[in-house]
């Protein structure tokens, strides 16, 4: 189950007859799909950076929350540094922003007046030194942020219900 930030409940229905009751066991796992973000100062195009991250880590960094935004700051040494993150424009639906590795973005931290799609060629996103996001030309050479996914950890709760 590779879902991040979601509480996944899968109900394992144990049909154990206990006298005249049916015994259900529900197992809920809060999947901690988070991991570690790292900053890489070597400059690459967005595509090169993505390939590098995928080969050596998991992917370009995704930023799904304020908390993860903060993780990038920590990765760069308690400050924000200019660098690519994994956000890119959907190739077909140009108003939709997707994370490298899948999923539409629902959290945004755009700088004022961004995304502006300057010259109509800004299809990927970089973090600025103020921590805000800017859409940019993917062929510019920039440092980048990679994400390494941790192994899954579970916090399981068992609920029992007699009906
Ligand atoms: Ca821009």
TrEMBL record:
Signal peptide: none annotated. Pfam families: Lectin_C. Gene3D superfamilies: Mannose-Binding Protein A, subunit A (3.10.100.10). Residues 37-147 form the C-type lectin domain. InterPro entries: C-type_lectin-like, C-type_lectin-like/link_sf, CTDL_fold. PANTHER family: C-TYPE LECTIN DOMAIN FAMILY 20 MEMBER A-RELATED, C-TYPE LECTIN DOMAIN FAMILY 4 MEMBER K-LIKE-RELATED. This is C-type lectin domain-containing protein.
């Amino acid at each position: 189950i590779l879902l991040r930030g979601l509480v996944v409940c899968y109900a394992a229905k144990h049909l154990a007859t206990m006298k005249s009751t049916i015994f259900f066991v529900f197992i809920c796992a809060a999947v901690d799909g988070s991991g570690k973000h790292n900053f890489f100062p070597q400059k690459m195009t967005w595509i090169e950076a993505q390939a590098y991250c995928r080969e050596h880590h998991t992917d370009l960094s995704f930023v799904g929350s304020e908390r993860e935004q903060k993780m990038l700051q920590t990765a760069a040494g308690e400050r924000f540094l200019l660098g690519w993150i994994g956000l890119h424009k959907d190739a077909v639906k140009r108003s939709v922003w997707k994370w490298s590795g899948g999923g539409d973005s629902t959290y945004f931290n755009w700088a004022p007046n961004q995304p502006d799609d300057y010259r109509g060629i800004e299809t990927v996103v970089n973090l600025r030194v103020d921590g805000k996001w800017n859409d940019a030309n993917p062929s510019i050479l920039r440092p980048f942020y990679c994400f390494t996914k941790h192994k899954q950890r579970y916090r399981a709760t068992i609920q029992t219900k007699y009906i």
